[in-house]
């Protein structure tokens, strides 16, 4: 029995809130079903926390902060060591839940967990990550040093597409820095997130240091405006991210918001053809395209424009089915609403004159007739004024644009307002160097389609894909979750020393 989940009639379960170390049955009147996107089976019910429950969670975090901030670094680190061991042990079980509620394949669900686990492993290095600086004798007998201290109660608001990885981007790093945390996972698929939170408690995180509430816009707004909250981390859509950034910022919070994307892959004719086509198809259609780092636009330069047929031939071979079925490449999108939106965008591309090379509408999956399936869809002849290019589709749709020169390709990518990630496929070191120098996108891959950095570095999306200066995980997130205090000190060895009255601004 999972403390965070309570059985209802049949197999459905109702989620609880975590407040002050206790799993609490919500008193709300507003609930939402967790639905398996491949079968429409109701897996659970999510409570939209009341105002009083949100306040209780934040206040519990505030009370816990008083002692947690003074917990030795070694003790915090050892909890993270235990947590990473528990995640490894329970990863297969969590992946099954994740696949059922989100739709992605079991292999992709395990990858979702593993990429979050890497951040937990990095959190175990907090002893060196949170070090300050020291310089002695900056003036006569004067030393200056800095302290990196926790800031207080932090909030994490996470999306449906990575219910394991993105929560693990947030609460382990915030907590290991000495803060306390209130997590608000996606209401569409919070069950796997709840299992990770359970493991965090088992690892030894004290009562109140980690709390979890559920809900929609009203819950988000309450967290962003709560006077006890000091910082908000967000990953999700551009519309919601902009709202969170503006609202929380107006209420004096630190905010990092990772938002939408339109990721381009530029392909030069000298690229390895087979490897490049494999990479583009995997990055475009994996996770049914529901990744903020998915490759959604291929920019084929010169003779590489002839590769559209290769992309189509390989995409046609991908298996569309439920995520738990063996050999599945493309699972369902998360909801009926998401499917309707993606289909409307495909329709708009056809209406605006793009060439539909491969049509994923109407795909049928035997045994899963009610699933939210869309097959791999490929457009060529796309223009930058089309709706399918201007909007983030967030589905298994790849757009192909052809240009004559490398410079045209760079200009095209730089003209797009988003800046999450981009890739270049080439065998030319000179071209790679030019690309990484001139491209105005925060994360660049060279012969890598999804250039998400490992946690030793930071996630560095830019422009329209990011609000706030500091990204998730790595060194930047330690800066985000701590405040720097500078101490300037002088000690006298002899009470008889008298420097006299000093009315000037400099130190002697």
UniProtKB/TrEMBL annotation:
It is an enzyme of class 1 (oxidoreductase). It comes from the Bacteria. The keyword NAD applies. Residues 23-487 form the Aldehyde dehydrogenase domain. Its EC number is 1.2.1.27. SUPFAM superfamilies: ALDH-like. The keyword Transmembrane helix does not apply. Keywords: NAD, Oxidoreductase. Belongs to the aldehyde dehydrogenase family. PANTHER family: MALONATE-SEMIALDEHYDE DEHYDROGENASE, METHYLMALONATE-SEMIALDEHYDE DEHYDROGENASE [ACYLATING], MITOCHONDRIAL. This is methylmalonate-semialdehyde dehydrogenase (CoA acylating).
């Amino acid at each position: 029995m999972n403390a965070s989940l309570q059985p209802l009639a049949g197999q459905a379960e109702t989620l609880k809130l975590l407040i002050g170390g206790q799993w609490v049955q919500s008193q709300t009147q507003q609930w939402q079903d967790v639905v398996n996107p491949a079968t429409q089976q109701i897996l659970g019910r999510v409570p939209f926390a009341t105002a009083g429950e949100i306040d209780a969670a934040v206040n519990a975090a505030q009370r816990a902060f008083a002692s947690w901030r003074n917990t030795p670094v070694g003790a915090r680190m050892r909890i993270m060591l235990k947590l990473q061991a528990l995640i490894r042990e329970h990863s297969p079980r969590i992946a099954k839940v994740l696949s059922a509620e989100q739709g992605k394949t079991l292999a992709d669900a395990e990858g979702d967990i593993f990429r979050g686990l890497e951040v937990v492993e990095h959190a175990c290095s907090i002893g060196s990550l949170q070090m300050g600086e020291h310089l002695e004798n900056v003036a006569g007998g004067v030393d200056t040093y800095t302290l990196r201290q926790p800031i207080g109660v932090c909030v994490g608001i996470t999306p449906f597409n990575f219910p394991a990885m993105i929560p693990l981007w947030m609460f382990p790093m915030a907590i290991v820095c000495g803060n306390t945390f209130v997590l608000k996972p996606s209401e569409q698929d919070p069950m796997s997130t709840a299992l990770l939170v359970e493991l965090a408690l088992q690892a030894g995180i004290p009562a109140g240091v980690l709390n979890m509430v559920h809900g929609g816009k009203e819950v988000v707004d309450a967290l962003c405006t709560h006077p006890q909250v000091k910082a908000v981390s967000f990953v999700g859509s551009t519309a919601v991210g902009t709202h969170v950034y503006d609202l929380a910022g107006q209420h004096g919070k630190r905010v990092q918001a990772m938002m939408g994307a339109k990721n381009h892959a530029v392909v030069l004719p000298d690229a390895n053809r087979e490897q490049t086509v494999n990479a583009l198809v995997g990055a475009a259609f994996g996770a049914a395209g529901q990744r903020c780092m998915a490759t959604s636009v291929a920019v084929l330069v010169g003779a590489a424009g002839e590769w559209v047929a290769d992309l189509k031939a390989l995409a046609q071979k991908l298996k569309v089915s439920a995520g738990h079925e063996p050999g599945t490449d493309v699972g369902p999108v998360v909801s009926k609403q998401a499917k309707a939106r993606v289909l409307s965008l495909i329709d708009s591309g056809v209406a605006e004159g793009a060439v539909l090379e491969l049509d994923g509408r109407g795909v049928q999956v035997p045994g899963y007739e009610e699933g939210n399936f869309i097959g791999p869809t490929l457009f060529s002849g796309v223009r930058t004024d089309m709706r399918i290019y201007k909007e983030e589709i967030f589905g298994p749709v790849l757009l192909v644009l052809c240009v004559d020169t490398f410079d045209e390709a760079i200009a095209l990518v730089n003209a797009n307002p988003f800046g999450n990630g981009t890739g270049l496929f080439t065998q030319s070191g000179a071209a790679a160097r030019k690309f990484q120098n001139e491209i105005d996108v925060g994360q660049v891959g060279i012969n890598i389609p999804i250039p998400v950095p490992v946690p030793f570095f930071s996630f560095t999306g830019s422009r329209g894909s990011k609000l706030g200066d500091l990204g998730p995980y790595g060194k930047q997130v330690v800066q985000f979750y701590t405040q720097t205090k500078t101490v300037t000190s002088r000690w006298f060895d002899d009470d008889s020393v008298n420097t006299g009255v000093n009315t000037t601004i400099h130190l002697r």
